[in-house]
Amino acid sequence: MITYVVIFSILAVLLVASALYAVIQKDLLAAVISTGVVSLILSVFFYLMQAPDVALTEAAIGIALTTIIFVITIRNTSRNEDETVDNNLEKF
Amino acid sequence: MKKVLVLVLLVIVGYFLTDTFNLIPFGENRIGNPQDEQTVAGYYLNNTVEKTSVANTVTAIVVNYRGFDTLGEVTVLFLATTGLGSILFRRKEDEEEIERINKPSSSLMQTGSRVLFPLIALLGIYVFIHGHLTPGGGFQGGAIIATGFLLMLISYKNFKAGHTMLNWVESLAGITFVSIGLWGLLTGGTFLENVLPAGELNNLISGGVIPIIYIAVGFKVAAELTGVLDILLNIKPKK
């Protein structure tokens, strides 16, 4: 039981940390990979919580498909976050 | 005329909603008590195995008891794919070769994905054929097959997922789902009624229409997601 709690806590901290990293990071490619890591940890969570079918979905869609679709989009647009959007936000 | 029609529909919907809510006394727990068969959770957990002989209760709920919801979900995915396709799909103009936007990948990647693709496809097919016995089902299996196609699409420049083929697979799977539902309506009385014999627990061919529906859903999801990836990979970058 105590090992379960320890593994769970470490994974939870990693999950929140990589999600925060994805929000803060200006390099969009790094942010996308970081959301992929979020999905990976989330699918481990689903497995630990005895929902293996949800874990399968999260693994296939969250880790592989969504990440690749975002990577393709970044390839077609620009890799760095658009700074003008931030400037616009400051006006409000 | 339109307003009258809307009013009539609203009255019908309102009548059935209040009727349903009047059946349940206010404040009574009808959702989550596994021991009590009067609640939803208890009914599913205690009756699924006997009535449908499906080992995976989640599948029985998703495909049989809540099958109409699943039809809605499949429709949502179909609409999303159609929307993306109508925005991004480029019809091939005369004498023009649409080029894949990715660079050709290394021979290591090509050989690796050629070895991995059949295995991934096999795993996906296993997951949706055994949807009623083991965890997983149509959505999961379809997504796994789509990742296999993704691997092939990004490693081989000449690998093409034919759109006519994908559309046919998708349409036939959708038609199968709806016609099984209508068959249930005609013979059993409700839409998606499980009309086939339930069979023996833990057999591959058991659970009535559940495996057929999940195989159809698997093909549909795989075709749709592969179509999305193919469309995305074939956009021409701005010069």
Kindly list the characteristics that best describe this protein:
heterodimer; A: 92 residues; mainly alpha; B: 239 residues; 8 helices; 65% helix
Give a quick summary of the entry.
The complex is a heterodimer of chains A (92) and B (239). Chain A is an all-alpha fold. Helix content of chain A is 85%, strand content 0%.
Describe this structure in words.
The complex is a heterodimer of chains A (about 90) and B (about 240). The longest helix of chain A is centred in the last third of the chain and has 25 residues, at about 50-75. Chain A has helices at about 1-25, 30-50, 50-75, 85-90. The N and C termini of chain A lie far apart (about 50 Å). With about 90 residues, chain A is an all-alpha fold. Chain A contains four helices and no strands. Chain A has one domain (about 1-90). By secondary structure, chain B is mainly α. Chain B has one domain (about 55-235). Chain B contains eight helices and no strands. The mean pLDDT of chain B is about 85. Classes of the chains: A mainly alpha (about 90), B mainly alpha (about 240). The interface between A and B is medium-sized, with 14 and 24 residues.
